[in-house]
């Protein structure tokens, strides 16, 4: 029944993963002195930008974004504005959470904020693409019976994987190994990235294997 | 209510844990008693001669230069001319080899084997006392690290030798005021390769040329620091060793004939430059001896030792320099340094080999006798064997001396064997773990954890079929223990208690588990419906649920030294994660938000919520608000942490230093005001809470405590802070008053605290009761109470439902904000009882609060803020638990019982560790706040019990508060029920709802089982932590950090568990005490009411 959708999802995810890959490899070839650890912030923003651009384009092309009620330009603009605002607010939210988790408050605020931007572009942006700027729907999606389509389930899986990845990424920080990837926020952003990629792979696979059990109600 | 089974189960489990901890500790912690006697010149005499003073005889050497090059491995000192491509650390000290080959009778190079632990401080202790320092040298005063045992430096001082020291400042703390002149340099910064060495070099040569020294100790740290920083295989090491080569050359050039030069390393290093363990790379240092005058009788002979143990330096140096051998030395003189018997002509005033050996053996025997009379840890049979051997040797030697003939060379060899066997015996006792005991301890701990888990899962069943259940596990161990004891007595003649305990604990544990398993199987067979529930509790899915996963992560974190060092933050991280999990989980179950009545949504699949949307909204906002409070206090609590020395760039919290140490007056005032405000808030919040639930109306002991003792106690505390913070010279005329106040105020506070706790114990009920005959005007305006009981005729049924009726009054009084209000039901005399709804939690809360203030007294003033955060966090946790229970609708039906789920219990016990750190404590010995022992006793103590218990109370304050408050987790959802049921639902349902904690009385079985389950879960988590740190210590016992990180962590964790279990038992007992008092109260009430 959902074979087509699953295939669409898999290809979408492949495109997003490819964009992440390109954002890592291309500058490594082109820009001298680029490395994921050394120029971490650059990599981080490149990846965030790539993920943002591809997901917005792909989801817009696929037409997953919930249909707008009005088609006036002003309404669309206000929607766009609200989306941007929500994105920024989610960056602030993630920043606060990360600081509360124990990140330094003042010292490396830029690094912390960059991590928040990455997390937002991996999670909030997807919510924006799939559900639109509607916080209630976001909260609704993250409950057991809240998913109303395959895309909602996929959103649940990727967001959970990303957040858990970033959480696990904090584990190696206190270890005394003196590795370059233990520097704040490298391990966390790498963890989030790996979690996100895992989610991209896991979501279509999980949905494929559970397609018999999945029943979505009235959309 | 069956209080006794609960208590006995808990006591039994605690006893199992204690046995496990004791066994593990006795196998792991190497304990040695320090012998506080010192050798004197008079007591070591040669036989047969007139009792001349030993020290008067002119010694072989007048002076000695002791160059200690930290971590001078034997590989560094060797020189191999055939090695054409030497590594950075090879062939860099050619001077040693050159001297040895060019002047063979003047110098030697030996491998110098240290005993583990190969850390600098233990090594300095080792080669000055000649003993084998262990982790815990009992008798050592913990506060300072000064060596109290007899040692070389002390002996040098006794005979008037002037000891000049320069280098590593560890010496200064080990031998305070023992040096004639001392030039210590800071040793802590490992990255600094040159400060200490350059400091020494500035003074070394000038001092040597001067004449105001007899013993010159220079301790170079550069090589060690270079190893720590770069590892041995680095060009910096080559530079450092070349520098040392130059130093040794210059020193050799400046030596005079009566001077001995000793160049030695205190330990070696691994290939990565670390040390501390007992691999050969770490233990094998080098020892180089040189003197311008002839030192040896010839070139190296076949009989020379391959390796010199580090302890052997002490008697050798002592005899060469003519001082008595330190009392507790177990070393053996280096024979090649002494001329053979009959060839004394070369060395003036020296001793022959046999004489030196004799003196040495006599001293070792004397030490062995003293030690074995003080402590029993050396096996008695080996002690007696050694003693026999010595008496045989001594008679042989004495007869040969008396007869004037030269003793046989075999005698020297057997004296050497004797000395070696003494040292080996001592090492086996003090420096070797007992793996069997450790394994047994670990197994017992593991089973105890398993039993806690089983208890928590099967609590209801265990209590239901009570009777033989606990008696059998108590009788079997007795039988087992007695069996083992008698077996030991028969075969070996003495009893080793440890192994009897092992067998007893094991039989008890296995018996219980078997019984539990069998009864579970029979239960499943009998009751098919319960089968899935019972079968699921050990499945991996259940064990890997997030709360248990967090607990598991916490235990796993104890296995890594980095995580133990960063423990405070790790635990905060975990608490924060688990706290965030609660709303996420609730939202996942669709319980956080009221179910939307969107017609589009298919309602069939949603669980039908029993709660109205407004209640849900209210509860969720409470939950989120409390979560915010929790997170806020977690974050703020991070700023009260202390610093370990391993954490390089860390500033300890400014609130940790007592006020009296602050210089800035304004800052001082600010801190004082902050502390007093938090103290006031603590008191005020407690009283507010009690008043809110109507617990301050009666006239019992508890209420008296809450009304008067609590505020008085805080006033006392505030005044005490003010007095102790006054600078000493500011009020000279009031000095007497101040010193009196410093004595009296804390003591008064202690007395008040004791009185308060006693009163709570004596009269824990906070229920205010009134009986009135007639209806009041305002009472009639209330909606008539809707109880089925009110229409029943049977007096028995009437009594049965009396409790809800009573409760109804309280609720009305709460609603109207008025505390005394009468009501009347159908003309019968009405009974009013205020505070009945919180009858269990109120005394517990007050107990906690009082105890908190008492513990605060033992802390620095700034910690008041941290304690306030602790209270807030407790409240937030309780409310989160209550709201989430309400939201998930657990308490709505009786079938669910009052079980406390794992999440709040894990949070509660993690918060313990978190506040252990947030009150400025660390699991290290130097960070213990010794000042606590002097609160109220500024002049010190006579005994050791009182200061020890005060310091324990101070250190484990968080453990105590959270353990006593643990039963609150059971009560709080019921206490908060009043808000949840005030909505439309409460009155609409059957009459049996909303009686707060009276629900527990209605279901005594459920109550006891829930209480047992909660305590078992709490003990499980703490026990698992003890188990994990014991595992860490056992697995990593060869780790570099074991004595710095893991062993102290284990000791703190184990003592924390001890304190926790004791105070958890106190809390549970208090609840049972309330239960008993309540029973009496109802007995008194019921005749009154039914009259």
From TrEMBL, chain A:
Pathway(s) served: Glycolipid biosynthesis; glycosylphosphatidylinositol-anchor biosynthesis
Transmembrane annotation, as ranges: 12-30, 42-63, 84-106, 112-132, 153-171, 183-207
Membrane topology of the entry: Multi-pass membrane protein
GO cellular component labels: endoplasmic reticulum membrane
UniProt xrefs under InterPro entries: GPI_biosynthesis_protein_Pig-F
Domain of life: Eukaryota
Signal peptide: none
Keywords linked to the UniProt accession: Endoplasmic reticulum, GPI-anchor biosynthesis, Membrane, Transmembrane, Transmembrane helix
Localization per Swiss-Prot or TrEMBL: Endoplasmic reticulum membrane
GO terms of biological process kind: GPI anchor biosynthetic process
Record protein name field: Phosphatidylinositol-glycan biosynthesis class F protein
Source organism of the structure: Channa argus
UniProtKB/TrEMBL annotation, chain B:
InterPro entries: Alkaline_phosphatase_core_sf (IPR017850), Phosphodiest/P_Trfase (IPR002591), PIG-O_N (IPR037675), PIGO/GPI13 (IPR039524)
Keyword Thylakoid: no
Membrane topology: Multi-pass membrane protein
SUPFAM superfamilies cross-referenced by the UniProt entry: Alkaline phosphatase-like
Chief place of localization: endoplasmic reticulum
GO molecular function: mannose-ethanolamine phosphotransferase activity
Record protein name field: GPI ethanolamine phosphate transferase 3, catalytic subunit
Keyword list, A-Z: Endoplasmic reticulum, Glycoprotein, GPI-anchor biosynthesis, Membrane, Transferase, Transmembrane, Transmembrane helix
Gene Ontology terms: biological process: GPI anchor biosynthetic process
Compartments reported by the entry: Endoplasmic reticulum membrane
GO cellular-component term (any): endoplasmic reticulum membrane
TM region positions: 6-31, 439-462, 474-490, 497-517, 670-693, 705-723, 744-762, 839-858, 865-882, 956-975, 1018-1036, 1056-1074
Superkingdom of origin: Eukaryota
Homology family: Belongs to the PIGG/PIGN/PIGO family. PIGO subfamily.
Pathway the protein contributes to: Glycolipid biosynthesis; glycosylphosphatidylinositol-anchor biosynthesis
């Amino acid at each position: 029944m959902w074979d087509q959708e699953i295939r669409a999802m898999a290809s979408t995810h492949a495109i997003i993963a490819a964009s992440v890959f390109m954002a890592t490899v291309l500058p490594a070839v082109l820009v001298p002195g680029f490395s994921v650890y050394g120029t971490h912030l650059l990599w981080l923003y490149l990846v965030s930008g790539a993920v943002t651009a591809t997901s917005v384009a792909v989801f817009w092309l696929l037409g997953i974004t919930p249909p707008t009620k009005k088609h006036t330009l002003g309404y669309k603009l206000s929607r766009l504005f609200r989306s941007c605002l929500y994105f920024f607010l989610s960056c602030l939210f993630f920043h606060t959470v990360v600081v509360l988790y124990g990140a330094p408050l003042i010292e490396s605020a830029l690094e912390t904020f960059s991590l928040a931007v990455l997390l937002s572009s991996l999670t909030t942006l997807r919510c924006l693409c799939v559900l639109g700027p509607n916080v209630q729907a976001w909260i609704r999606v993250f409950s057991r019976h809240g998913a109303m389509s395959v895309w909602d389930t996929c959103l649940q899986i990727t967001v959970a994987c990303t957040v858990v990845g970033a959480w696990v990424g904090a584990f190696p920080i206190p270890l005394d190994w003196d590795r370059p990837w233990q520097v704040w926020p490298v391990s966390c952003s790498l963890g989030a990235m790996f979690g996100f990629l895992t989610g991209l792979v896991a979501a279509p696979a999980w949905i494929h294997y559970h397609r018999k059990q999945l029943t979505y109600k009235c959309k | 209510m069956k209080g006794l089974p609960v208590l006995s189960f808990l006591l039994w489990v605690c006893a199992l844990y204690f046995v496990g901890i004791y066994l593990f500790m006795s196998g792991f912690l190497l304990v040695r008693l320090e012998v506080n006697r010192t050798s004197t010149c008079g007591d070591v005499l040669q036989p047969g001669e007139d009792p001349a003073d030993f020290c008067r005889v002119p010694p072989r050497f007048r002076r000695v230069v002791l160059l200690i090059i930290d971590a001078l491995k034997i590989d560094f000192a060797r020189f191999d001319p055939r090695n054409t491509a030497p590594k950075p650390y090879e062939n860099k000290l050619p001077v040693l080899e050159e001297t040895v080959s060019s002047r063979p009778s003047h110098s030697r190079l030996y491998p110098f084997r240290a005993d583990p632990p190969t850390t600098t401080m233990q090594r300095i202790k080792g080669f000055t006392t000649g003993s084998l320092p262990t982790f815990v040298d009992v008798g050592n005063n913990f506060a300072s690290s000064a060596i109290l045992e007899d040692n070389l430096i002390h002996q040098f001082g006794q005979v008037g030798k002037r000891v000049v020291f320069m280098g590593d400042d560890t010496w200064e703390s080990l031998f305070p005021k023992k040096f004639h002149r001392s030039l210590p340099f800071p040793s802590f910064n490992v990255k600094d390769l040159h400060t200490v060495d350059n400091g020494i070099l500035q003074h070394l040569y000038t001092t040597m040329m001067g004449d105001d020294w007899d013993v010159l100790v220079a301790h170079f740290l550069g090589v060690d620091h270079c190893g720590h920083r770069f590892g041995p295989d680095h060009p910096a090491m080559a530079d450092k060793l070349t520098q040392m080569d130059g130093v040794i050359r210059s020193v050799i050039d400046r030596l005079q004939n009566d001077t001995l030069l000793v160049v030695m390393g205190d330990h070696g290093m691994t290939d990565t430059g670390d040390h501390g363990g007992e691999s050969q790379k770490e233990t094998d240092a080098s020892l180089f001896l040189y003197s311008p005058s002839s030192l040896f009788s010839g070139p190296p002979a076949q009989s020379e030792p391959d390796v010199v143990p580090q302890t052997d330096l002490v008697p050798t140096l002592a005899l060469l320099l003519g001082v008595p051998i330190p009392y507790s030395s177990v070393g053996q003189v280096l024979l090649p340094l002494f001329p053979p018997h009959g060839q004394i002509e070369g060395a003036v005033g020296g001793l022959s080999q046999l004489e030196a050996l004799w003196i040495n053996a006599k001293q070792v025997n004397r030490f062995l006798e003293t030690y074995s009379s003080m402590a029993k840890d050396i096996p008695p049979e080996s002690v007696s064997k050694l003693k026999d051997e010595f008496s045989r040797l001594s008679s042989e030697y004495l007869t040969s001396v008396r007869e004037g003939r030269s003793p046989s060379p075999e005698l020297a060899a057997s004296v050497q064997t004797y000395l070696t066997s003494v040292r080996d015996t001592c090492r086996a006792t003090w420096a070797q773990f007992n793996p069997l005991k450790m394994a047994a301890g670990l197994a017992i701990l593991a089973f105890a954890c398993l039993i806690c888990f089983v208890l928590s899962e099967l609590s209801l069943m265990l209590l239901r079929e009570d009777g033989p259940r606990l008696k059998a596990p108590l009788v079997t161990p007795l039988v087992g223990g007695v069996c083992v004891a008698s077996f030991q007595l028969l075969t070996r003649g003495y009893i080793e208690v440890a192994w009897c305990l092992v067998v007893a604990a094991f039989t008890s544990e296995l018996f219980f588990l078997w019984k539990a398993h069998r009864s579970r199987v029979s239960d499943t067979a009998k009751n098919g419906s319960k089968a899935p529930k019972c079968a699921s509790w050990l499945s991996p899915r259940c064990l890997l649920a997030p709360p248990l996963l967090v607990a598991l992560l916490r235990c796993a974190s104890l296995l890594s030294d980095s995580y133990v060092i960063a423990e405070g933050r790790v635990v905060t991280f975990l608490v924060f994660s688990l706290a965030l999990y609660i709303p996420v989980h609730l939202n996942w179950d669709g319980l956080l938000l009221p179910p939307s009545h969107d017609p589009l949504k298919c309602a069939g699949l949603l669980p039908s919520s029993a709660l109205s949307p407004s209640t849900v909204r209210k509860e969720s906002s409470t939950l989120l608000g409390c979560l915010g409070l929790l997170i806020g206090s977690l974050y703020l609590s991070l700023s009260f942490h202390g610093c370990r020395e391993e954490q390089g760039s860390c500033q300890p919290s400014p609130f940790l230093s007592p006020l009296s140490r602050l210089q800035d007056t304004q800052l001082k005032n600010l801190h004082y005001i902050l502390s007093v405000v938090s103290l006031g808030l603590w008191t005020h919040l407690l009283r507010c809470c009690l008043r809110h639930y109507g617990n301050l109306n009666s006239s019992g002991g508890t209420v008296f405590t809450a009304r008067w003792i609590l505020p008085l106690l805080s006033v006392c505390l505030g005044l005490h802070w003010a007095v102790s913070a006054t600078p000493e010279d500011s009020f000279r005329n009031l000095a007497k008053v101040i010193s009196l106040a410093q004595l009296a105020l804390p003591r008064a506070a202690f007395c008040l605290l004791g009185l308060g706790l006693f009163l709570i114990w004596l009269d824990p009920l906070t229920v205010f009761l009134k009986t009135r005959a007639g209806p009041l005007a305002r009472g009639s305006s209330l909606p008539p109470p809707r109880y089925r009981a009110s229409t029943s005729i049977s007096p028995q049924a009437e009594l049965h439902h009396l409790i809800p009726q009573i409760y109804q009054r309280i609720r009305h009084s709460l609603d109207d904000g008025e505390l005394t209000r009468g009501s009347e039901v159908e003309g019968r005399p009405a009974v009013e009882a205020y505070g009945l709804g919180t009858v269990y939690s109120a005394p517990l809360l007050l107990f906690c609060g009082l105890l908190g203030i008492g513990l605060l007294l033992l802390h620095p003033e700034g910690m008041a803020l941290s304690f306030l955060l602790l209270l807030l966090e407790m409240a937030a946790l309780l409310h989160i638990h209550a709201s989430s229970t309400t939201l998930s609708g657990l308490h709505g039906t009786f079938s669910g019982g009052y079980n406390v789920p794992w999440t709040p219990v894990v949070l509660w016990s993690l918060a313990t560790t978190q506040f252990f750190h947030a009150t400025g404590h660390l699991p290290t010995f130097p960070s213990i706040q010794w000042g606590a022992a002097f609160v109220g006793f500024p002049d010190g103590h006579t005994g050791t019990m009182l200061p020890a218990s005060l310091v324990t109370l101070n250190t484990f304050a968080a453990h105590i508060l959270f353990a006593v408050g643990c039963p609150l987790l059971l009560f709080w959802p019921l206490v908060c029920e009043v808000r949840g049921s005030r909505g439309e639902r409460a009155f609409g349902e059957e009459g049996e709802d909303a009686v707060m904690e009276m629900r527990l009385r209605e279901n005594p079985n459920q109550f006891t089982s829930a209480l047992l389950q909660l305590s078992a879960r709490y003990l499980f988590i703490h026990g698992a932590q003890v188990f994990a740190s014991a595992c860490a210590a056992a697995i990593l016992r060869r780790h570099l950090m074991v004595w710095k990180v893991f062993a102290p962590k284990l000791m703190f964790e184990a003592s924390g568990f001890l304190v926790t279990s004791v105070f958890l038992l106190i809390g549970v007992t208090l609840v049972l005490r309330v239960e008993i008092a309540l029973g009496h109260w109802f007995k008194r009430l019921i005749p009154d009411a039914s009259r």
